[in-house]
């Protein structure tokens, strides 16, 4: 197996990428961010809101529309009911990320083996492949920016100005801005520029000129939609802008050091990633010192700049994981070439400890999978048995690799372990599903027919419920303005947090609970229970 991979590394990268992104794509539940994107895409197709984008029928300008446009095209052809097809756009965009990551690594004059291994680290990094299976805005903006970075590097390294490279570079900067505003310009592009100019000072004046031209042209494309909406729907655009600025300053505010454990987001590669960041240790052990300095600085600058923003979430670390994968690749390449020749006992013991953990993880999976499925063992044997057997097999290969000092026999089985997790582990997530509380939106539609009523929500809505409903659910309040139905009775989705709104605005109505919606596939005592996606359904009648 390992010999075949060594002789077919590029094919192995392609197979790994396909497995990590396509297999069991529709298994995991939709989250709030993905639901928002899909709802807006559905309203583009159903209501024609392609420029003045909406969410649940209300103006939604917090995010630019390019990812939603792409999702809408897939929804138009494949429908908005099948989550697998609605996630294909983000999978394709992640393939774009991996491809241009691969190309950038070659532009840095790294060996083919290191390029492939770094790409394998990228696609098997925890948050990269999870973001690549979740159709929200993050992967789009950073993938498009990486395309631009590749063509900008080509310009930097060329003795001539290439108009085609320039056009592609600024076009994809525009696409990145049209995906999530200037987020990637700040979190990925600016750190790249700082790292590149600190490392490669040759032709710096020319490169700065090319960069400025590219940025200006890219911003003209990227901000065109924002300026258009600002001009033709200023009221709603300014309200959305204030909301976003408030979020940056006041929501999820964390201390400066919150991101200092960023390397843990690479999952399996946490310890190798951390070692690769110890610059004094590794700088004299790599063959391409300049490239290593560049990827190290790119990673550090990205983390520092993100740390300056008060609002912090773990998913915002996605742009950091891109240069971090390149940086980790240097440590992996050092071990690949020098593992057999290590003389320091400390290095030998540490390396054996780190990659011995992978063997322990493999054996633990084999045992843990049966403990995890113990109450549903018969139902999940088709997944549990192959998962356990392959994990044991991979653990044995890793141990033999440690004994024989064959680093390839440690590294590649670790990659296969991640693939095995996606193939056989993802379906096991349904073990925790409990239909005890689950009540789909179809129950509300039956009540609508029974009572001949239309459904409303209070002053807020749950995107997952709206997505399941299939069309917008009107709200009784928009930007503080109350608008009650003119009918004598209607249906109302509400929860405990809406009680103040109900008492204040519906005192002329009698209210009776007649049903509920609960999209939880778990019981209340489970960690993944989410009270937000549960609402009671009331019959509201004029007294």
What are the SSEs and their pairings?
Layout: H1 2-7, H2 9-22, H3 32-47, E1 54-55, E2 58-59, H4 66-78, H5 83-107, H6 112-124, H7 126-131, H8 138-157, H9 163-180, H10 183-199, H11 204-222, H12 224-232, H13 234-250, H14 270-276, H15 279-282, H16 289-307, H17 318-338, H18 345-372, H19 381-404, H20 408-425, H21 442-451, E3 455-457, H22 463-469, E4 477-478, E5 481-482, E6 489-494, H23 499-505, E7 509-518, E8 534-542
Parallel strand pairs: 3-6
Antiparallel strand pairs: 1-2, 4-5, 6-8, 7-8
The multimeric state of the shown protein is single chain
Question: Rough shape?
Answer: globular
Share of helical residues? 55-70%
Please, what is the average pLDDT? Answer: 90
- Total helices: the number is 23
Strand arrangement in the largest pleated sheet: 3-6-8-7
Radius of gyration: 26 Å
How many strands appear in the DSSP assignment?
8
Account of the protein in words:
By secondary structure, the protein is of the alpha+beta class. 62% of the residues lie in helices and 7% in strands. The protein contains 23 helices and eight strands. The chain has helices at 2-7, 9-22, 32-47, 66-78, 83-107, 112-124, 126-131, 138-157, 163-180, 183-199, 204-222, 224-232, 234-250, 270-276, 279-282, 289-307, 318-338, 345-372, 381-404, 408-425, 442-451, 463-469, 499-505; strands spanning 54-55, 58-59, 455-457, 477-478, 481-482, 489-494, 509-518, 534-542. Strands 3-6-8-7 form a four-stranded mixed sheet, covered by helices on one side. It has a two-stranded antiparallel ribbon with strand order 1-2. A hairpin with a 2-residue loop joins strand 4 (477-478) and strand 5. Helix 5 (83-107) runs parallel beside helix 8 (138-157). It is globular.
